[in-house]
Amino acid sequence: MPISTRLNDGATHDAVALAGRALPADSMAQVFFEERADLRLELSGRAAPNLAATSTRGAAVGEPGRTLHRTDPSLDDLVAMARGDGRWPFPPVDSEPLSGTPASCFDPEWTAAIEAEVFRRAEIELAGLPEPRWRASIVAFHQKVWVAGTDASVVSDVRGGCRFEILVGSESHPEVHAAMEWVLAGNQPEPPAGCFSRAWERLERRRSARPPRPGTTRAVLASGVGGVLVHELVGHALEADVVREAPTWIQAALPSALRMSVIDEPARGRGGWRVDDEGVATGRTSLIEDGRVVGLLLDRSTARLHGAPPNGHARRATYLDPIRPRMGCTYIGHGQDDPADIVRETASGIFIREMSAGHTDPLSGRAVFIVNDADSIVNGAVQEPLAPFIISVDGVEAWRSIDRIGCDLAFDTCVGSCIRDGQPLAVSVGAPTIRIGVITVEC
Amino acid sequence: MLETSANEIEALVERANALWMRAQRERTSRVELYAKLADRVRMERGPSMHRAREAGIALRTFTRDESRAAFASCPGLSNGAVDGAFSAGQRWVTAATPEPALVSGRRSDLDADLSLPSEVELLTWLRSSPSIAWVEAGTTTEVLIGPEGWVTARRRHRIWAMIRPDGDRLVAARGAPKWDEALQRCTAEYDPGGPTGASSSCSIACQTEAAAPIVNALVHRFHLSNAIGDLRVGPGWNVMDEPAHPAGLVGGVFDDAGFPTSPLKLSNGGALRTLEGTEGHLWRRSYREPPIPTPSNLIVGSRGLEEPEPCGFFARRCRVHHLTRAVWVLEFEPVGGGAPLFVRTSPERLIRACALGVGPARFTANGPCVPVMVFRGLQDENSPSA
């Protein structure tokens, strides 16, 4: 990621370790420190570019039951927090930040380059088209965290992600538009080639689209899309703190008819992490195997209550927030079916290309989704484009009715953030093509 | 215990002044400095206590011709924060700032002295209210130093609680003069009254928590842009933005750019106003954001204490799904439970369907202060013949 890393890693590491030594011995107490830079660049064919770059830095210190959170503490502040001192003396005006330098920020040369590239592509790809209008946004973050326990050992992790979204429409039909999103990867991320052309094609295809008729129907979810479904229905129902409050629908549900698997693997995500915010290494957490629940998403606190080792899912949106067990990259494992066969063997239904979460109740398994791009399926063939619509899904019913799983696992075809208890987190999802027997088109 | 006393405010004013002077020395242009200090304490079931202090500054550096300003922010309240803000990426924002003659000296808008609740108090509240999942009390102090050196200081105490089960329900209140009274006020069971029976009418009546997100969505769509045009609104769309409302969760007697505030009728007998370019309505979402035109305390007018006529559907909550700019789907949850009602509409039709406000208005955690609101004709659009 193109970051001006002005972090004094050694000094921060040493300060966090020193504070760790001041934690009460034989406790679960920890020192968490983070530096974070965020960037949002908004571009359009009609207005001046708008760049918003912010940075933050702070600490959360204590045990799961009692935590102190503070912006930009000095070394003395951090040690005092580790000793449990919740008084906040006004800091001296010349107090030194922990790392001794200003917070990190994005490299202005990279933002200028990506801005120029977006304009260049828009000009080329939309040239000659009737009255095109477009907007693009690039949202990126870079975060570094340090975590120390009572033994003063320090683990650190670097995370980052970049998302690119475009919206294309035309002056003559201002109320119709096509929006597309991509996850940008690599050290010097660039907008994908052909992005504006693809969005325009989608816009053209949808000009005459009408919403589907309300009622229950079958749905084929294109590769990647099913990840949104399992994130909402399965993942949230297996967050250990949620499960502890009350049994969730999936714990009571019968195994699915298919030998499907659901996995959460944070390191694969677009804002992936290798070590969580409690310093626990993450891996591949199996949530469902052969259609049965086999795992939970755990932080240290819930792991202790469940008598299991933590599995690296403890996250907080910022140093100001409490830890929660969270998903990173949730996906359905590979199946055996040819995706083309799945559509061919569907007499009627809808083919969903892109959807996003509305809301979910992890206890009952009821969820609502916004379908942004879909087509009808008639006699085993994809037919008319459908205007955006709302579907509701009953977890138990839908779970039992998944009857086909493709062999085309794909990630990040639907890009979104997960907000839980007011805490947003960049997450990824993945899935092969799947078919569900029962969903309800609401309107 | 955290004290946010007069001394703490003076300390923040003094610090903001010192940082503003440092910023002035760094730049030949005129500079405005905004400093924020937020203390809060939250108790969750478990129990788990979180005590937090957030601090940061933001700078607006005005161009010589005062046509625009460069904005940057940085966490912390030390000299390093000013240096950090100047070295961070800056963006161009509005240069709106009051004329010096309008705002000389120092102005204050302070909630009374109040200490954050202790852990024992927080625990006692949780134990006495099994439906509360967490409770949070906080004090926010903000200081703005204008380009000519004038000073504004604002302090707000607020309390928040998450009510469960039966879905998440966030409630909030201004916290003066006592935290426990404020908590009681915001968590008290609220029966706003409403239709006494169902009818075959196509009207939908919304309790305050169902109406608030609709009001927010419509105000953001029509009153924050110049998209009003020849828009027609229903007779119930009577909305005022009242920044200095004494019970408002946000706002104050001056805005986040230092302009004095005054109530603004956004809709009055069909005549619509926009907040765009309106001085006294510039607010910051956080210290990391510049002041932009934003509603503060939206107050929806009510016809009085009468009950609305029996309606087709009485909603306790509503979610507004934005399918496209032209198509919204409203998902209404019925009072008393049962299947939700989905209504596909457009923002233009929705504002036209706003028929009346009935009964007492109440502040919601979403922001607006709303009565029961009745929408007529929405379901007609979803009938097969429509």
In short:
The complex is a heterodimer of chains A (443) and B (386). Chain A is of the alpha+beta class and 443 residues long. In chain A, 21% of the residues lie in helices and 40% in strands.
Total of DSSP H or I helical runs spanning 4+ residues of chain B: 6
**Tally of discrete structural domains of chain B:** 2
Number of helices of chain A: 10
The biggest beta sheet of chain A reads:
7 strands, mixed
| Number of DSSP strand runs of chain B | 21
Assign a percent range to the helix content of chain B: 10-25%
Q: pLDDT under 50 segments of chain B (min length 5)?
A: none
Strand content of chain A: 35-45%
Structural notes for this entry:
The complex is a heterodimer of chains A (about 450) and B (about 375). In chain A, helix 1 packs parallel to helix 2 (about 75-80). Chain A is about 20% helix and about 40% strand. The mean pLDDT of chain A is about 90. Chain A folds into two domains: about 5-205, PmbA/TldD fold; about 215-440, no CATH class. In chain A, the strands form five sheets. In chain A, strands 10, 11, 12, 15, 21, 22 and 23 form a seven-stranded mixed sheet that branches. Chain A is flat, with a radius of gyration of 24 Å. The two termini of chain A are about 40 Å apart. The longest helix of chain A is centred in the first third of the chain and has 18 residues, at about 110-125. With about 450 residues, chain A is an alpha+beta fold. The model of chain B has no long low-confidence stretch (mean pLDDT about 85). Chain B has about 375 residues and is of the alpha+beta class. Chain B folds into two domains: about 5-185, 2-Layer Sandwich (PmbA/TldD fold), CATH 3.30.2290; about 205-380, no CATH class. In chain B, the strands form five sheets. In chain B, strands 1, 2, 3, 4, 5, 6, 7 and 8 form an eight-stranded mixed sheet that branches. A six-stranded mixed sheet of chain B has the order 19-18-17-9-21-20. A three-stranded antiparallel sheet of chain B has the order 11-10-16, with no helix packed on it. The chains are: A alpha+beta (about 450), B alpha+beta (about 375). Chains A and B meet through strand 3, strand 4, strand 5, strand 8 and strand 16 of A and helix 1, strand 1, strand 2, strand 3 and helix 2 of B.
